[in-house]
């Protein structure tokens, strides 16, 4: 069975400009190392501002350009609503939690 490298990112509770940029840099470094599958676990994230939203979209574009896959999990209700109001909730592959993602075998 082939194993796909997977990077799971656990951002800080405030997904704003600086912290979101850190996540983007982490993912860009991983892309450079050949990793193509990414999961951003929002379990600890309490808030996301417009800068964080813009960077999240930029991360998605980075990953898609590299022909990778980006998944999100454990979004709280305010962040889910933000994605819906921005009209991009269906742009992302979203799982209820990390266990649900792992059940798919996408990172295996």
Major sheet: arrangement of strands: 1-3-5-6
CATH superfamily, by name, is: STAS domain
Number of contiguous helices: 4
Approximate strand percentage: 15-25%
CATH secondary-structure class: Alpha Beta
* CATH architectural name: 2-Layer Sandwich
End-to-end Cα distance: 9 Å
Mean pLDDT: 92
**Order of helix and strand elements from N to C terminus:** EEHEEHEHEH
The class by helix and strand makeup works out as: alpha/beta
Q: How would you characterize the largest beta sheet?
A: 4 strands, parallel
Number of domains: 1
Domain STAS: 18-108
Pfam family, one: STAS
Protein name: Anti-sigma factor antagonist
InterPro entries: Anti-sigma_ant (IPR003658), STAS_dom (IPR002645), STAS_dom_sf (IPR036513)
Could you characterize what this model shows?
This protein is of the alpha/beta class. The chain has one domain (6-104): STAS domain (Transcription Regulator spoIIAA, 2-Layer Sandwich), CATH 3.30.750. Helix content is 44%, strand content 19%. The strands form two sheets. A four-stranded parallel beta sheet has the order 1-3-5-6. It has a two-stranded parallel ribbon with strand order 2-4. Helix 3 links the parallel strand 5 and strand 6 (93-95). Helix 1 (17-32) packs parallel to helix 2 (50-65). The radius of gyration is 13 Å and the shape is globular. The N and C termini lie close together (9 Å). The model has no long low-confidence stretch (mean pLDDT 92).
